[in-house]
Known about the structure:
AIPM/Hcit_synth_CS; binds pyruvic acid; acyltransferase; amino-acid biosynthesis; 17 helices; branched-chain amino acid biosynthesis; 8-stranded parallel barrel; PYR_CT
Amino acid sequence: MNPMTRIAIYDTTLRDGSQGEGVNFSLQDKLLITSRLDELGVDYVEGGYPLSNPKDAAYFQAVRDLPLGHTKVVAFGMTRRRDIAAEDDTGMKALVAAGTPAVTVVGKTWDLHVREVLGVSLEENLRMIGDSLAFCASRVSEVIYDAEHFFDGFRRNPDYSLQTLRQAAEAGASWIILCDTNGGSLPEEVAEAVSQVAREIRVPLGIHTHNDGELAVANALAAVRQGARQVQGTINGLGERCGNADLCSVIGNLSLKYPDFEVLAPGKLVRLTEVSRYVYETANMNFRPGQAFVGASAFAHKGGMHVHGVRKIASSYEHIEPSTVGNERRILVSELSGKSNIAEKLTEFGLDQDQDLLSRVLDRVQELENEGYQFEAAEASFVLLVERLAGRHDKRFDLRGFHVGVAGQYGRASMTEATIKLQVGDVFEHTVSEGDGPVNALDGALRKALEHHYPGLRDMHLVDYKVRVINARAGTAARVRVVIESTDQDAVWGTIGVSENVIEASWLALVDSFEYKLSKDARGRTAAAPKSPALAAESLS
Length: 541
Ligand SMILES: CC(=O)SCCNC(=O)CCNC(=O)[C@H](O)C(C)(C)COP(=O)(O)OP(=O)(O)OC[C@H]1O[C@@H](n2cnc3c(N)ncnc32)[C@H](O)[C@@H]1OP(=O)(O)O
Ligand SMILES: CC(=O)C(=O)O
């Protein structure tokens, strides 16, 4: 058996990832992400650009105190400025002063950039590369050379771009990284260029790709197959313009699809989903549900025929077992469901596979979805629907009616008040509450009526509220769908209401949310649902 070839993973989330629109990590975020990447077993973490800003400079001070087990922290910078000695260049000095075990120097490889952007001769650029690499190599144990725009340069002037690589190799580069900086190359172009360079250059090669043609991951894999032994990318593909190669996909594919390559240490791959979500949360960005390997929908099955297949043999509709990357399989319920979706849910809820119940649930789901309901986003309402149809729902309060009034005065903030009448056992409650809008006022009045009967409701609060017009052509008479997301200490759940009246739709979703909480507490379950928009209902058993 041939030994596996190790592919080093180089993460640049904190440097190139920060160049993505809307991404701004604090110093603390950067340190926390560094630790997570170390736990995942990433080989290199490019922490930033020490010359660029005080935060990045402070990072390289602070990261020295971080107990890292595996990862090497890398400082990034460019070759020396034109017409100045490397030892006098502030960028060069800042790079070495970062005190990291490795540094990365980016240099120009494409003659167009040398002449038109830097404004120097081709010879001076070669000297800039040689001097900078030699300066770093005599002071830092590992020097990585990022050949910016390599593939564009190689297409137009292969001799010159190869000369720049030779210059870096001779000056002491430990790695030469071929960069598809503009992200426009095709996998076959990358493969051909890497195989040519591999014949010419003896220094280990790496690949750094951008996603402007949606090919960053494919291009990185093509390079690895032709001899690249380091892949640079970012978690979730964050980065300049359309982003960098998404390391979640690079790692997933290299670990699970290529038996000859080895990335990360054994047992680390299961952390991939957790690290992806951690980076989204830290960057304050929304998850991408359809993201390969780690997205909440990556193993979510909706179509009835798919669920039918997955129930028999999971690999019928799954390219890998979700748990290998720390993700999970989810079965969605909708108008596209067949009996298999419902059967899977009944199993999940610990209910018998009663054929009559199964048909009634499916009919009701299809009826309601036809009216505008969407249960995928509101699994708690689906749980209540099943409970009711299964005759297992204990009514904990009887609603008698509600009233919402909004008083407006031109130029002043409006005032909203809600009144609720309901019954808990023999006790009649009639409560009123003001609020910042109708939902808040209804929530307040419901709490006044119910909290002294059910104190557990105090733990629950609303975290999200979404309204969507269903039949927009009906204008202001259109039906609306309201989805509410609520949480307590251990779960997040979604409920839904549909009506022509936005207050009534909100009311239906709100009441379901209260009912779900009471039903959940009565079951005494504490199982944690994931803190993500993808909601998991709990067992009814
Ligand atoms: C492909 C990449 O992603 S490379 C990394 C890109 N990332 C960033 O640019 C983020 C961090 N950048 C910064 O903080 C700033 O741009 C700095 C500190 C690097 C430079 O700032 P400034 O000195 O104000 O210059 P500015 O950003 O306007 O222009 C870049 C300068 O670097 C020069 N330069 C660009 N690339 C190189 C290089 N590889 N080697 C030497 N000089 C270079 C340019 O010629 C220009 O200098 P000039 O104005 O004398 O011609
Ligand atoms: C180095 C780098 O970030 C690039 O060439 O895209």
